[in-house]
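User:
I study polymers; will you set down one protein's sequence and backbone structure tokens?

Assistant:
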Amino acid sequence: MKAKNGVKEHIAMGAEKMDKADKPLSPDLLRKMNAYWRAANYLSVGQIYLYDNPLLREPLKLSHVKPLIVGHWGTTPGQNFIYVHLNRIIKEYDLDMFYIAGPGHGGPALVGNTYLEGTWSEVYPNVSRDEAGMKKLFTQFSFPGGISSHVAPTTPGSIHEGGELGYSLSHAFGAAFDNPGLIVACIVGDGEAETGPLATAWQSNKFLNPITDGAVLPILLLNGYKISNPTVLARIEHEELEQYFRGCGWTPYFVEGDDPEGMHQLMAGTLDKAIEEIRHIQSDARNKNDNTRPRWPMVILRSPKGWTGPKVVDGLQVEGTFRAHQVPLLVDSEHPDHVAQLESWMKSYKAEELFDTDGRLIPELAELAPKGDRRMGANPHANGGLLLRDLRMPDFRVHAVSVPSPGAVDAQDTLVLGKFLRDVTTLNQDQRNFRIFGPDETLSNLLGAVFEVTNRQWDARTVKNDEFLAPAGRVLDSMLSEHQSEGWLEGYLLTGRHGLFNCYEAFIHIIDSMFNQHAKWLKVTLELPWRRKIASLNYLLASHVWQQDHNGFTHQDPGFLDHVVNKKADIVRIYLPPDANCLLSVFDHCLRSRHYVNVVVAGKHPAPQWLTMEEAVVHCTEGLGIWRWASNDRGAEPDVVMACCGDTPTLEILAAVSILREHLPELKIRVINVVDLMKLQPQTEHPHGLSDTDYDSLFTKDKPIVFAFHGYPWLVHRLTYRRTNRNIHVRGYKEEGTITTAFDMRVQNELDRFHLVQDVVDRLPQLGSKGAYLKQMVRDKLVEHKQYIDKHGQDMPEIRNWKWANPK
């Protein structure tokens, strides 16, 4: 009878309608593959439940079971099924392939399979391929001091953290770019498929070049349920599901059922067809130089959640329901009868037929796994640092802005950087290991010089007035999705290449959690000696809070800096260069660096240029320093320290200093500019941090510090709270300003020169009446400013045309 949702009848088809011609597996190979699958399932159950008696040599007791059982069974048997079939096609077709596990907590599957193929024991020799090693394998899973229940950096063959869902397919495409011989098998959970990033990622096939890139083989594991709800894709009509993926540009192949023998034959035949199709697409494109976008194959595997596990527990159906999602069988002192049920479940896999008396996988089954680097757990692409080559770097100094004196000329910082990135792109065209990613903002952020030497990669249709679109290119910014840009770049970096992500500052928050996961990955892999360092994840944040160009309140948010600072000091770096020469120096450093997250904030509008290239290199190398040419305290103690971090705060601090020095020439002022934000932290907290001695020498122990900062003021307080000098007053963004002029944005947030002058006067009561008159003057200027912009719609000429001049 046809089910109301139109699904059950289709599942019932499958294997029963196959004839002998549709059975690619010989009886012997089918028997072995099914046995290998049983072995993987056995190891998976053992990991979730046991820390003793791994081969059930004696009757199972409660004392053999972990006191706290944590794990996820539901997705695991389906992933084990896929893994054994991918092993077969790797051997059959000599494929360079690795596995991305999208379904969240499928850790037992990947750990078990890398153990069966031998990779786990090579990476972790203490987990040997025998009974003692199996006991350690089981004990370590979701156990204090062990490994997590999801696929993690500790898992050989993985580039994808399985904790947060939604990014597997994006990572897969990032790995496939510029890897023409690679096939990335990406297993997508049907729960994961409901996330925004994953739903968008199906469109990534419009950006894959069949000539120069590898292939992605998505396998949608449609087991029907999430934690306690059905999944959308499992409950729509078969026709609708097929039309959905065809509409996304894929050719879907269905493998559906629950009978193991028939499902093995269906899966084998389907994967043969998919691999032959991929090879045909690639050979046709490469032999004919045909960039026409193909319809790539994908597989939809519909199988029961918790397949081969307990069918009924305490009178409730488990297999094929949401109840199989995590631990399908509670085994503890409150459920003593479940011990026997667990034992029966594990014995159903007949471990005595799979492992010898020493606990080793029997030779005829071990032979099913690929050898050497062809094993998915040992594939070098999944340990990208092994393949990483240095970028060929141009001399950034050739792009230097000529600065005859501080503030004498204006330049657009990111426009200058674009020419440097153009040269980086040119030098690495042959290596094909550098790309620029972003959500359609490369031109807006003034990096357009790169299009002099490359295009945007785009394999969908083009029309007459399109610009810079081509089937191959070094820029991937044609999809308006921060998630895809981030995911593609992460996959690209994790497989041993280099790149950067340029984005509007306010909207980088969209990938906050993706940054979290990548930073955690970097942190954990630093602790794994077998993992090699990868190129840094570089962010260029432009169109920033102080340059909102009438976009309004929505485009104002510098809070990504606060978010980044939360991560481990070994990983994060934040740079706010004050001008173009400093930006060039900083970005040259970032592109050469390894295993960091580098955040660089830069402006794109015409702005004063302060340092020559030689001065910029020294300043950026030190990370911060006194600007002697703007200070007048040499040979004496300063009355006040004027500090700045960021291009706009630097401009306003220097304008405030010019006012103070003109009207209070006897006032001793020290100007400090900060490029490397982490210099503010003590060296005990961050590798870049200043020692207390050096900090006190620069900022003094007790003099008032007026600090103009690019972001939220409390971040500076947070970074400096351990310092001796707590006499610090920080101005920054405080959620004010909308459609207004550039200078009025600063006024509304009290970051402008006039408020900064008031701050100094308020903190130096010894200024007396001179201070009072100066304070009155700047208040008058603020009133004049407001009246002027309301009438003229632009800032006053003295603001627009202001230039730094050393006061006498």
Summary: Confidence is low (pLDDT under 50) at residues 1-17. The chain has 25 helices and 22 strands.
